[in-house]
Amino acid sequence: MEDEQESIIEEEEYEDSDKPLSTRYRPPFRSARMQIQRSNVCSRAYFVVVMVFFHLYILNVIGLLLYVHYNNGPGDLVSGDGDTSASVSQSETALPSPTPASKELHVEDHRQSFSLPRIEGIRVGHVQQVSLVPDRTHEMRTISLKPLLFEIPGFLSEEECRVVVQLAQLKGLMESQTTATSQGQEESNQPLLSLSTEEVFSLLDLNQDRLLQKQEIESHSRSRDGTWLNPDNLRQILTGLEACPTGMLTLEDFRRVYDVSQHPGRQRRGKLRSRFKQRSKHTWLYQGQGSHHVLHSLRNRVTSLTRLPSTLVELSEPLQVIRYEHGDFSNAHHDSSPSHSETTCAHTRLAGNTSALTEVSCRYLTMLFYLSSVEDGGETTFPVADNRTYDEQALVQDGVDLIDTQETCGRGNLRIKPTAGTALLWYNHLSDGRGWMGELDEYSLHGDCPIRHGVKWVANNWVNVDPNSQRQARYQRLVAQRNQAKPGMEEHYQPLSHSNLHQDL
Question: How many other CB atoms are there within 10 angstroms of residue 187's CB atom?
């Protein structure tokens, strides 16, 4: 059997030896098959890589959408304004106007969480088209990023400017509370009531034990008629009290602390820093239901431009109209106030913390309207606009304080000449990153240069927002409930009348 197999093998080998070499050589067939297999492997690897990158792209898109969604805040304030989270249009498209504001405030409007839309500045010089009135668009130009500041020419017509001025004259203007002293006169920091240090100590010392305690200062400071103590004074007094080992102030200790509180600049840099001073006349004009149609239309345009919920705008301060005559001015100041644990916003005091030390103004943004042009002077100045950094020490240059617009108006980084009908919009606060109002923007420091020739008429609209969104919502619910019992916004302003906060800053 084995011999037969061997013979068969030998015959096959012999037959193969008789065939030509070319017919017996088969390596090329194996090489082609190997190439086909390698090609299949490369195609499969390429497909896997493409699919990995495709999935990564999809994940990035989803992540971007989630970021945009949550970066816009927890939700929009519902007040009948429609979609308030839409972004501002670019330079070639018009900003869509929201639906008309609701006529009444309802308790149901405050169930959802809040969000504050914010216009993007893009860059200095960027122009956006905004639609505020039918059949017309306005150009809104970014003129500063720190603070975020916009200029809108032709926001008011010549006739509207004239009507607002006439309404202010009809109501009557009053002198500003903070009037600057003339040159050569000794500056006085004493407010309307002239009180000695001993008298102030006695008024604060409620139990008359000749020792001043923290509870006594807090209890008295909540009085609305304490015009001789402002938030800065109180903060300095409390700081001095807390520095005492006993936690109480004697009359001698109080003399030292009170002197520092009256002249904070001397302790800081050996020079009395200018306090906010203004010389002008002003009045307030109601813009709610029953007001002149020009005033009502102006408020609606503010709502459309800012895209803020109409409830916030309606519950904010009335329109302030100011007249600057020859030599009148206002030193540089902030329209709003920084948030502190011992303060509460004046406009939400109904829902505020009862243990708050004092009330301050909380203004998310400012809209300033030029009602007249000025022949010479009267520019609105932003001394530190678009500075690389902000430092209070840098406000003093060559021994002169940039806050003093009488002396240093020409040194301001940004000056805007008044032109009738033009409006300015700037944000007094930064965003907190969650769609609500954050810290005070120090770069929003601004003032008015002295009038050298002519008369300057301006108007201010402030939108009041509490840094605490829950307190803001609680305040709006209280107002809505009160309005159900007493309909009419005008009645709301009687018990909740806004004091002249702009003058007191």
Answer: 10
Structure tokens given for 218: 């807090």
Q: What is d(CA 80, CA 103) in angstroms, rounded to the nearest whole number?
A: 9
Q: How far apart are CA 285 and CA 41, in angstroms?
A: 80
226-276 pLDDT tens trace: 344 566 677 777 778 888 888 888 888 888 887 766 654 444 433 334 455
Tell me 212's DSSP state.
B
Tell me, what DSSP letter sits at residue 498?
A: P
Q: Please tell me the distance from the alpha carbon of residue 318 to that of residue 313, in angstroms, as a whole number.
A: 9
Choose among 503, 477, 437: nearest CA to 176: 503
163-180 per-position pLDDT tens digit: 999 999 989 999 875 544
Q: How far apart are CA 349 and CA 70, in angstroms?
A: 30
- What distance, in Å, lies between the first and last C-alpha atoms of the chain? 121
How many whole angstroms separate alpha carbon 308 and alpha carbon 476? 15
Q: What DSSP letter does each residue of 238-301 carry, written as one string?
A: HHHHHHSTTS-B-HHHHHHHHHHHH-HHHHHHSS-PPPP-EE-EEEEE--STTS-HHHHHHHHH
C-alpha 44/C-alpha 146 separation (Å) is 54
Q: Which residues contact 218 (CB under 8 A, 6 or more apart)?
A: 342, 355, 357
CB 248 within 8 A of CB 277: no
Angle, helix 251-262 to helix 231-243, in steps of 10 degrees: 140
